[in-house]
Amino acid sequence: MARKAAPAERRDDVDAVTRAVLTASRVLVAVSARSLTEVEDRVTLPQFRMLVVLSSRGATKLVALAELLGVAPSTAMRMIDRLIAAGLADRQINPDNRRETLLRLTDEGRRTVEDVTARRRQEIASIVERLAPRQRTALIDALTDFNQAGGEPPAPPLDESADLHPLGWGGPPTAG
Questions:
Q1: What pLDDT digit, counting tens, does each position of 81-125 carry?
Q2: Among residues 94, 100, 99, 101, which one has the least CA distance to residue 80?
Q3: Nearest-10 crossing angle of helices 73-85, 62-69
């Protein structure tokens, strides 16, 4: 029977894992920032997050979009106005309720998300290639458990890239 860790040992373990994840998050933030370099003259990181949400959720109401991003509706409105001006998003009347407006990506917005996501995937793959096969397996197991604990659905395999949900955000598109 396995010995239960003492409370101090568990805290040390949680702290060690937390520090390792924080360090890994710095690597991933750097990868994310570099993947945006080709579009940074047109879109900020928060605006790109909005594009990603629209890409993964489909046509969405402003209030739902603001909630998904964790911003005030007025902030989301300013962001979407800039994306519309840049030709990356647009508004459409909800066919199910003509009093509602839905926000969605344009073809250019979709291409932008796909291009940035492809650059990000390529850079992450080049980092993963430096790991030994057993380290890759351990990382898959650890990150799968971490993602499940965080409530994040898995990213699709590369061969399903036609349905690629950027940054691993998935689920069927909803009208919000």
A1: 999 999 999 999 888 888 888 999 999 999 999 999 999 999 999
A2: 101
A3: 110
Nearest C-alpha neighbor of 51 from the set 101, 95, 107, 92: 107
Provide the CA 29 distance to its chain's centre, in angstroms: 11
Could you tell me which residues are beta bridge partners of residue 23? none
Mean pLDDT value across the chain: 85
Q: Which residues pair with 97 in a beta bridge?
A: 94
- Classify residue 58 as left (phi > 0), alpha (psi -120 to 50) or beta: left
* Residues contacting 69, CB < 8 A, separation 6+: 46, 49, 50, 53, 76
3-state SS track over 86-150: CCCEEEEEECCEEEEEEEEECHHHHHHHHHHHHHHHHHHHHHHCCCCHHHHHHHHHHHHHHHHHC
pLDDT score of 94: 84
Q: Give the confidence band of 74 by pLDDT, cuts at 50, 70, 90.
A: very high
User: Comparing C-alpha atoms, which of 109, 103, 118, 112 is closest to residue 173?
Assistant: 103
